[in-house]
Design brief:
Helix content is about 45%, strand content about 0%. By secondary structure, the chain is mostly helical. α1 runs antiparallel to α2. The longest helix has 26 residues, at about 15-40. The protein is elongated, with a radius of gyration of 16 Å.
Length: about 100
Amino acid sequence: MPFEVAPRAGHGWFPAAEKPVAALVDDVEASRKEWTKAAAVTDADTFSAPYKKGPKIIDSRRTVTARKVLGLATTPPSNDGGGGSRGDGGSGGGLEV
């Protein structure tokens, strides 16, 4: 079942949120195209380019505007690459949402 993003599925947003959410939706759709390309290939060399490009399209720092107008947390995750322990036996991903 394909993933549908609310603004393209007829969801209405309050005026201040329309542009930032639409920009984020555009990024999600562009990223999805790269992931679709990656899923369709049969060799590692061809897989690598879209696999690396897909997540870079949705830069967590660029989501801040949309998150802010929607009343969500706006602190982007750190890009330190660490996934240190939380001290509770689980591994922390270092992401804040």
